Amino acid sequence: MKNPFSFSSIYRFSRKNRGGVFLLRVIFGCDIPKEAKISDTVEFQHRALGVVVHRDSVIGENCFIQHHVTIGVNKGNTGAPKIGRNVFIGPYAMLLGDITIGDNAVIGAGSIVMKDIEPNAIYTGNSILVKRGYRQLENTEQATSEKKSVR
After folding, report:
1. Distance CA 31, CA 52 (A)
2. Tell me: the pLDDT tens digits for 13-59?
3. Domains of the chain, start order
4. Rounded distance, CA 13 to CA 26, Å?
5. Which of 68, 84, 134, 140 has the fewest CB atoms below 10 angstroms from its CB?
6. Which residues neighbour 25 within 8 Å (Cβ) at sequence distance 6 or greater?
7. What gap in Å lies between CA 62 and CA 59, rounded to an integer?
8. How far apart are CA 8 and CA 14, in angstroms?
9. Please, is 22 exposed, middle or buried when counting C-beta atoms within 10 Å of its C-beta (0-12, 13-18, 19+)?
10. Distance, CA of 37 to CA of 15 (rounded, Å)
11. Which residues contact 136 (CB under 8 A, 6 or more apart)?
């Protein structure tokens, strides 16, 4: 029998019922408004501890979101992030402003993202460290030789 007080049960409840967002905030310490367009297949790790999502955000299918992630607006801007499919967002990452994160992107732990990230990119820390295409080439000889040439 499924626990009615588990994160996934209360999260599903919060998407449809009044007062559900309050329960998420009090019990799990996260702020995920029901107005946000979040796919049903998104996974929030660690019961979404400390996760904050802006109500105008869009999060695509099969995204994996770690704890203490902020997906919101940047001061003075009105647009919220749009996140593609199969995106991994590491702990303590901040995605701010009217930006688009491409499909299959990886956002590293503690990253602050304030500009668009193209599909299949790996982003860590700041804009200098965007590494393009490694995720899709990970199991090939070409990826290995490209990684060695970057070092």
Report:
1. 5
2. 888 888 888 888 888 899 999 899 999 899 999 989 999 999 999 99
3. 7-150 (2.160.10.10)
4. 14
5. 140
6. 31
7. 9
8. 10
9. exposed
10. 10
11. 104, 120
